[in-house]
Write a structure and sequence with these properties.
This protein is mainly alpha-helical. It has helices spanning 3-19, 24-39, 44-56, 63-75, 79-91, 100-113, 116-133, 138-149, 151-154, 159-168, 172-178, 180-200, 214-220, 225-239, 245-263, 268-302, 304-314, 319-333, 339-356, 361-375, 383-392, 396-419, 422-433. The N and C termini lie far apart (52 Å). Keywords: Cell inner membrane, Cell membrane, Membrane, Transmembrane, Transmembrane helix, Transport.
Length: 434
């Protein structure tokens, strides 16, 4: 059979099995099994056992359940309850006032969550009713929340960065540090959009609350300060080389346990719920990674990555054209698959092509995270859109419309990191120099 026929058969198998309701991880393993049985001389069972064990026993992957657990613990502290109260005094003077709590709140929670859907749901529970009650326009409240919640993927520690690092064999510590400046850039773009909108529509911005002095603001934010220090400790230990990503994750878990105990929100029920929540999420991701590792091996035996790389090379695309083509490809793919599945399905095939084009794998990792973020707010499978639909009761087309400016700002962020790659690579270079 030709490469095109084999690819078509495997893609058809993938969508048929997915459409039947089988879990994504098992679907990937099933397609890999078909490929090994039909197009390879190696026994499929032996290949699957060896590959899945090797994938599941990776020490690098240990950071993933630890960071997920850290986020689960902090999610159950008073952080989510006190965040709006702590942030509101600091943004009153900015054009757009409390709309900025969506952006700043998502940025802070992203650093303890690693998931955009969790960030959207948590911050939305606080800001949607409060901002609506105060008279802020619903389209701005929902739109800025949809865009800013995607920062859960970009601000470290990020689940999808760990998945990419394992799939592409790239340093997770360097990926984490590389995401800091692009995350701040994207948050600044979102806040900048709020400022411009507020200056153009001052009549739609409610009046400011009573002004507070600096010490009053600090008092209102006292519940946020320990969490900010914990985040700084986790990221600082990675940047200085004092700890690896896995060790920093362990520090984060211990710190979050201590913090929740001091706040009085830790009890046996909370501990058990956080542990079970982290276990369920990690098991789902680990199953997807194991299936993807087996599928990557099967693709290697068939030779599809090499043939695809040769085909892309034959097109004569320069680096910029390749990046544009990949961005469009991932945005379209994001209409049908979640972010983790997109990464694990494509990395084995695309990395040889990306490396042959001379693209830095650390930079490419941040690029992937950005375009996957964009896919989170594109219908029909934009998970953040579903979360917002459930919270607001609005129809998907309306939510998609008010989110469009955020999508365009993300496109601008991708263009900026391409034109100025140092936004991504400068901090990892400084970290390596240390």
């Amino acid at each position: 059979m030709s490469d095109l026929a084999i690819t078509g058969l495997l893609v058809l198998s993938l969508f048929l099995i997915l459409g039947s309701g089988v879990w994504i991880g098992l679907t990937l393993s099933g397609v890999a099994w078909i490929a090994m049985q039909l197009f390879s001389a190696r026994p499929a069972g032996d290949a699957m056992a060896v590959t899945i064990w090797g994938s599941a026993s990776s020490w690098t992957l240990t950071a993933l359940p630890l960071f997920i657990w850290m986020g689960e613990i902090l999610f159950r502290t008073r952080l989510s309850q006190d965040m709006f109260k702590g942030l509101a005094p600091w943004v009153q003077a900015l054009p757009g006032r409390l709309l900025h709590t969506n952006v700043v709140g998502c940025t802070i929670f992203a650093a303890v969550s690693g998931s955009s859907a969790a960030t959207c749901a948590t911050i939305g529970k606080m800001t949607l009713p409060e901002l609506t009650r105060r008279g802020y326009p619903e389209h701005m409240v929902v739109g800025t929340l949809a865009g800013a919640s995607t920062l859960g993927l970009l601000i470290p520690p990020s689940i999808i960065m760990i998945v990419y690092g394992v799939s592409a064999e790239v340093s997770i510590s360097q990926l984490f540090i590389a995401g800091v400046l692009p995350g701040i850039l994207l948050a600044a773009l979102f806040s900048g959009y709020i400022v411009v909108w507020a200056l153009r529509h001052p009549e739609q911005v409610p009046a400011a609350d009573v002004r507070m002095g600096f010490m009053q603001k600090l008092s209102e934010s006292r519940s946020l300060i320990p969490v900010m220090l914990l985040i700084a400790a986790v990221l600082g230990s990675i940047y200085t080389g004092f700890a690896t990503a896995t060790e920093a994750a362990a520090v984060g878990v211990v710190g979050s346990l201590v913090l929740s105990a001091v706040q009085g929100s830790m009890n046996w029920g909370t501990f058990k719920d956080s542990l079970m929540g982290a276990t369920r999420l990690y098991c789902m991701i680990a199953l997807i990674l194991a299936g993807a590792a087996f599928l990557t091996l099967a693709m290697g035996y068939i030779g599809l990555p090499r043939h695809l790389a040769e085909w892309i090379a034959s097109l004569g695309l320069n680096q910029a054209q390749l990046i544009v083509a990949l961005a469009i490809f991932f945005i379209i793919l994001g209409c049908f698959l979640d972010g983790i599945s997109m990464v694990v399905l494509t990395m084995g095939v695309l990395m040889p092509t990306v490396q042959a084009a001379g693209i830095d794998p650390i930079w490419f990792g941040i690029f992937i995270v950005l375009v996957v973020e964009m896919a989170q707010i594109t219908p029909p499978v934009g998970f953040n859109l579903f979360v917002l639909q459930g919270m607001t009761g609005r129809q998907l087309p309306w939510i998609t419309k008010v989110t469009l400016p955020m999508f365009l700002l993300m496109c601008g962020a991708v263009a900026l990191i391409y034109v100025f790659p140092g936004i991504v690579t400068w901090l990892p270079q400084q970290m390596a120099a240390r």
